[in-house]
Amino acid sequence: MQSYAEMSKEELQALRKKLSAQYKEFQGKDLKLDMSRGKPSAEQLDLSMEMMNVLNSDSDLTCEDGTDCRNYGVLTGIKEVKELIGDMMEVSPDNIIIYGNSSLNVMFDTVSRSMTHGVMGCTPWCKLDKVKFLCPVPGYDRHFGITEYFGIEMINVPMNEDGPDMDMVEKLVSTDDSIKGIWCVPKYSNPTGNSYSDETVRRFARLKPAAPDFRIYWDNAYGIHHLYDHDQDHLIEILAECKRAGNPDLVYKFSSTSKISFPGSGIAAIATSRNNLEDILKQLKYQTIGHDKVNQLRHVRFFKDIHGMVEHMRRHADILRPKFEAVTSILDRELSGLGIGSWTTPKGGYFISFDTLDGCAKDVVAKCKKAGLVMTGAGATYPYGKDPHDCNIRIAPSYPPLGDLILAMELFALCVKIVSIDKLLADKETVEKTVAPAESKAEA
Amino acid sequence: MQSYAEMSKEELQALRKKLSAQYKEFQGKDLKLDMSRGKPSAEQLDLSMEMMNVLNSDSDLTCEDGTDCRNYGVLTGIKEVKELIGDMMEVSPDNIIIYGNSSLNVMFDTVSRSMTHGVMGCTPWCKLDKVKFLCPVPGYDRHFGITEYFGIEMINVPMNEDGPDMDMVEKLVSTDDSIKGIWCVPKYSNPTGNSYSDETVRRFARLKPAAPDFRIYWDNAYGIHHLYDHDQDHLIEILAECKRAGNPDLVYKFSSTSKISFPGSGIAAIATSRNNLEDILKQLKYQTIGHDKVNQLRHVRFFKDIHGMVEHMRRHADILRPKFEAVTSILDRELSGLGIGSWTTPKGGYFISFDTLDGCAKDVVAKCKKAGLVMTGAGATYPYGKDPHDCNIRIAPSYPPLGDLILAMELFALCVKIVSIDKLLADKETVEKTVAPAESKAEA
Ligand SMILES: Cc1ncc(COP(=O)(O)O)c(C=O)c1O
Ligand SMILES: Cc1ncc(COP(=O)(O)O)c(C=O)c1O
Asked: Which UniProt keywords apply (chains A, B) (predicted)?
C-alpha cells in the first residue's frame, strides 16, 4: 500500500474521483446506521431474559438475613448482592455500598456531595475559588459532562497505551491543591480499550496529592468485560494497592452491571475505604430510605455467584468478539499502510479508538452522517467537546447487527480516505501558494 | 370519665399504683413490637406479588413507541408510565419526569441542585449567606433531615386541621427572600393525616414570594391512599391552580408508588411546569443515562391503568382500615375524657398523630420502649428533632399484624396514662413548693 502522503496531487485527485463514486453509491442505499453509543445489542440483552423468571409470585423475596426485600430498609444493599458485586469488583463486601441502576449517577452524586459538603471534613468545593480535575484523553464524554456541569476546570492528560501520562499526573497532583480528582477508566478504557499497566496502578496508589481531598475516580466499568478467554488484561486491585501504599482513602471505585444484565435496569456500586464509606453514608442516609432490593435479589438469584457472572460474560463476548474483529479487520484491510489513520485493538470493553490525520475527525463524522451513519460526535472524547487536534473518533461496535456493522465500517473507512485526501490536497495547495510567490519573486 | 387534671394527688397516686401493676404485666410479656416507621405490612406487600409475573423471559419488553426497555435511554421515562403516573398525580404526562425508586431521593436532588446551580437562573443557594425553609409541624422527619443536611434554616409553621397556618406562611414568604421553600404533605399528611382545605391550596397557589426561586415542595405521597370508599379527602390539583393563579412555576410536586407496589422497588416522579422541567433536565442529563425502564414497564403491565391502581389501593385499604380503626377505638376507649391526650382520625395515609400533655412525649416513648414497643422517636416530627412542647408522637399502624397492634396500643395508652400522672403529680408538687414557703412567710 502506498501512503497517501507520498502520492502526487494528480494521483490523489484521481483516487478522490473513484472514492466519490463509491460514496455516492453508499448514499443511494439510504442507510440508517447508529454507532454513536456503547449500547449492547438486542442479542446480548436476550442473554439476560432468564432474569425475568427468577422471581415470580411464588418466590420467597426474603434475603439470607431474613429481610423482606419488598419493604423499606437496608440502606447499603443486601448482604448477598454485596458479596456478588464485591467479587465482581475484587473488594470485600464490607467496602461496598450498593446503589440504584446507574454508576454514572453514583459518580455524579459523589462530585455533588463534594461540592456541597466537602470530602472527609475538607472545605466544600463550592466554597473554593477553583476546583480542577485531571482528564485522561481521549476519555468518556459523560465523565467530562459531570465535571463541566459543576464548573470544575478540566485539564487534559494524554492517555497512553499503559494508562495516563503518570509523570504529568504526579507532577500536577503533587503541586496544585486545587486539583481534586482524576477520571480513570482503568480497564478496557472508554474509548481506547487500553488497560493501565501494573506500574501505572502502582504509581496511582502512591500519589502524594497536595490536596487532602483529592480522590481518584476509578470507574472500572469494564472490569469483567473481556473479549477473549485466554488473552485478558489484568489490573492490580487499586483499593488494596492504595492500602499497601499507605494511601487507603485515595480512591473511589465505581462499577455497575449495566453491560452485564440490562443497561438502565442493573445495579451500581461504589467501593472505597471505611473512612470514605462513613463520609458517604452521612449523605446517603438523608438521600433515600434505600435502593431497589428486589432488583438486587433478582441479580443474585440469576447470576448466583461470580462464576455465574463470568460464564455470562463469556456469552456476551461470543457476540461482541466477531464485531470487534470485523471492525479491526476492515480497518486493516482498507486503511493500513495509507498513513491516514491509526486505531486500537482492544481485548475487551465496548470501544475502539480511531485517530485520523489532524483536523479530519469532524469532517469524517459529518461525511458518515450524510450517508446515513451516525458515529459518536467528534470531540466528544475530550473535555468541553474540544479535541485540540480534531483527530479522535470513538467507534462503538456493540449495537448494530454484524451485517450493518460491516457496511458501516466500510463506509467509515471510505469517509476517512476521502476526507484525508481533501486534507492532503488542501495542504499541498497551501504549500504551493506559499512557495509559488517566492519562486516568481526569484524569477523576477 | 373523670379528667386527670381534676383528680386529687391521692387519687392520682392510687391510680398510678394500679397502672404500674398493669405495666409490670406488659413487661413480663417480653414484647418486641415495632411501630416506628410507616412501612406496609407483609400482607399488603403480598397484594403486589403478581407484579413479579407480568414480565418473564417470553415477554416483549418493548414499549408502545418501540423502545427496547432493556437498553439504555429514555431519560424522562417511557410514555405509558408517564400516562399512568400522570393520572395518579392528576397532571399531564408532559409535566412529568419519572425517576428511580424513591421520591425522597428526587426531593434530595432537587434541594441539592438548587444549592449548586440555583433555580431557573437564580443564584445558587450555596452562594447565599442564609437559606430558609418553612416546615409545617408536626411533619415528616426525612424532609427535615434533607434541609438540615444542607444547612438550611428551618422555621416551624403550625399545621392545623386544614393545612399550615396560611397567615403565617403568606407573611413570611412575602417578606423574607431568604425563604426558598416549604415542605408540604398536602393529603393525609405525615403525621397528622389531615388534608389541606380548598382554601389552603388556593392560598398556596396565590403566594407572592419575595424570592423568585421560592418553590413549594408538594410531596403528595398519599394522593390515592384512602381508607374508605366513600369518605375520601379531595385536593384541588396544585399545578393547575398555580397556573390559573398566574404562578405556574411555583410548585414541585413529588410522588411515588412506594406504598402502592413495593417500598424501595417502586417508581418515583416529579411533576412541575415546563420551565421547571427544563431547568431540572439540565441536571438530569448529566446525572444518569436513564432510570429503570424495565421496572416502569413492570408497573404499567401490572396496574394497566389508573383504574387498576385505584382497585389495588382498595385492597390496601381493606388491610389498613381495621388497623387505623383499632388504634382510634383503643385510644377512644382508654383515653377519651381524661384530658391527657388528643389524636387525629385520618381517612387515609399511613399515620395518626398523638399529642400528649406538654412535656410528656419523650417519656411516653421511653416507657413504651422499656416494655418492648418501639414508637417513632419523640421529637422526630419536628425540625432538628426538637418538639418545643415535647408532646407529639407519630403512630404508624400499618406494619404490625392486627393482634400486635392492639397490644401495642393498649401498652401505649397505659404509658400515656402513667407518664401523664407523673407529670400532673410533679406539677402539683411544684405548686405546693412555691405556695408553701409563701404561706410560712406569711405565718412568720
Ligand atoms: C466508562 C463508563 N462508565 C460508566 C458508564 C455508564 O455506567 P452506568 O450505566 O452504570 O451509569 C459507561 C457507559 O458507557 C462507561 O463507558
Ligand atoms: C410524606 C412522605 N414522603 C415521602 C416518603 C418516602 O417516599 P419514597 O419511598 O418515595 O422515597 C414517605 C415515607 O414514609 C412519606 O411519608
From this structure: Aminotransferase, Transferase
- pTM score, whole prediction: 0.96
B163 membership: H or E segment, kind and range = strand B163-164
* Chain B residues close to A265, C-beta within 8 Å: 69-70, 292-295
Name the pairing type of β-strands B352-356 and B373-375: unpaired
Nearest-ligand number for the alpha carbon of B99: 2
- Collapsing DSSP states into helix, strand and coil, what is residue A344? coil
Which of B52, B112, B287 is the closest to A59 by Cβ? B52
What are the contacts of B174-177 at 24+ separation with CB within 8 A? B174/B207, B174/B208, B174/B209, B174/B210, B175/B210, B176/B132, B176/B210, B176/B211, B177/B209, B177/B210, B177/B211
The DSSP symbol for B371 reads T
Coil, helix or strand at residue A81: helix
Q: What is the ipTM of this complex?
A: 0.96
By CB atoms closer than 10 A (0-12, 13-18, 19+), residue B369 is middle
Residues 6+ apart with CB under 8 A from B321: B227, B228
What is the C-alpha R_g of chain A? Answer: 24
Contact A57 B53 (CB under 8 A): yes
Give the torsion sign (CA, A355, A359, A362, A366). negative
d(CA A400, CA B198): 55
Strand, helix or coil for residue A59: coil
Between chains, do A292 and B145 touch, taking CB under 8 Å as contact? no
Which tens digits make up the pLDDT trace of A377-419?
A: 999 999 999 999 999 999 999 999 999 999 999 999 999 999 9
